[in-house]
């Protein structure tokens, strides 16, 4: 009877996860994605440079906060660069930077400057006007679909935060 009980217990514990991907396997799926964050970058300088470029070009700044450790961060970067329509909207309207936060380089001062966006999870998108004021913090999970992102939601997000869209509200 003990063997039968142990067999049932073993099956009850393993069947729900049979065929699922382990966290280690899930991480390995993202090793082929480009590493987009400079883990040694001084994020404060990075933001200042982006703001200078934004002022010169009449665009806003978007900071994608996260790290190379974050599969969803890498997926988002790949998604917006491979989707031609979204890539064009971003290029025309924003100075887009990747602000690293990791165990090795938390960039705490920069994250405070950006309104401590990590409370929303990663990646998180922070939109700055050309004076450096935080206009919006976007939890990227609302833009997800399955194991990727939803084209319509991502495009709508970017279009709603262009300078033209903001000025039309005034």
Description:
- The chain is globular and about 75 Å long.
- With 170 residues, it is α+β, with helices and mostly antiparallel strands.
- The chain is 46% helix and 17% strand.
Helix and strand topology:
Blueprint (H helix, E strand, L loop, with lengths): L1 H13 L8 H6 L14 H15 L2 E7 L4 H12 L1 H10 E7 L7 H6 L10 E5 L5 E6 L4 E2 L2 E2 L1 H10 L2 H7 L1
Parallel strand pairs: 1-2
Antiparallel strand pairs: 1-3, 3-4, 5-6
Helix pairs in contact: 5-7
In angstroms, what is the radius of gyration?
Answer: 20 Å
Name the helix and strand elements from N-terminus to C-terminus, one letter apiece: HHHEHHEHEEEEHH
Low-confidence stretches: 9-27
The CATH architecture name reads 3-Layer(aba) Sandwich
Q: What is the averaged pLDDT score?
A: 88
Feature tags:
6 strands; single chain; 170 residues; alpha+beta; two-stranded antiparallel ribbon; globular; Glutaredoxin
In short:
With 170 residues, this protein is of the alpha+beta class.
């Amino acid at each position: 009877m003990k063997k039968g009980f142990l067999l049932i217990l073993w099956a009850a514990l393993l069947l729900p996860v049979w065929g699922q991907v382990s966290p280690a396997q899930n991480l390995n799926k993202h090793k082929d994605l480009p590493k987009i964050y400079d883990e040694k970058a001084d994020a404060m300088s990075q933001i200042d440079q982006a703001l200078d470029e934004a002022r010169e070009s009449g665009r806003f700044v978007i900071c994608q906060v996260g790290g190379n450790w974050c599969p969803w961060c890498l997926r988002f970067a790949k998604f917006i660069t491979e989707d031609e329509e979204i890539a064009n909207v971003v290029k025309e309207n924003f100075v887009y930077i990747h602000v690293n936060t990791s165990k090795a380089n938390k960039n705490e001062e920069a994250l405070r400057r950006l309104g401590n966006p990590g409370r929303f999870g990663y990646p998180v998108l922070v939109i700055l006007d050309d004076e450096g004021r935080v206009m919006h913090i976007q939890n990227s999970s609302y833009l997800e679909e399955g194991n990727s992102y939803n084209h319509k939601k991502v495009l709508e997000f970017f279009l709603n935060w262009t300078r033209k869209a903001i000025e039309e509200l005034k």
